[in-house]
Amino acid sequence: MGIVEEAHNLRVVGDGKRGVIVLAHGFGTDQSVWKHLVPHLVTDYRVVLFDTMGAGPTNPDYFDFARYATLEGYALDLLAILQEIGVESCIYVGHSVSAVIGALASISRPDLFTKLVLLSASPRYLNEVDYYGGFEQDELDELFEAMRSNYKAWCSGFAPLCVGGDMESVAVQEFSRTLFNIRPDIALSVAQTIFQSDVRSLLPLVSIPCHIVQSTKDLAVPVVVSEYLHKHLGGDSIVEVMPSEGHLPQLSSPDIVIPVLLRHIHYDIAV
Hints:
single chain; 39% helix
């Protein structure tokens, strides 16, 4: 087993008749978040699953705080994963921060991607005079302090807000489990990297066709952000806003989200 495969718990399933699909999870989750989607893909595709560095199932000894202080470190990881398994071209489905990571990776290696499906993506979470990302700096500072002071309590409060449900729901319990599995200092570092990032200036460099999929009610990403992406990405793009709640609609509303994702995976943008 290679170091990349071991570090990211790399897993490849499916027959690959129609090509390769890479599924990349967002903050607080791991590759298990795709459990509702994978069964629909394995007959036709070679499906690549992995855990981003710092996720609960990964070895914390591999987490380099300096490398992952920017999203570029994660983009380099993605390119290393594709190289490890010899992917020459793929459809990339990224959730939340991993949507942006895929976009960044596509700038340096556009030949590796035929399509990006961006679920709950945001290039910038902070509000500015001419941009609405959803958060003020003091709100993020409070979030970071809550994580720092009592991570377990923060997880219990953040999970239902992020998923869009109460603690008794299966989706919230699942997210709570994967969120709590992350080492607290790593979780804080990753959250700070994500929420303080700003990749808006790089969007015009993304030339790969993008399918932007967004929930109507998302704690972390306002609907207007999907329109911002659509306007500023360098390649062709389309937007679909789903009647679902939460930042993890693939867990909270799989009956709504999975058909939408499959439609975007199977069909190309008409231009």
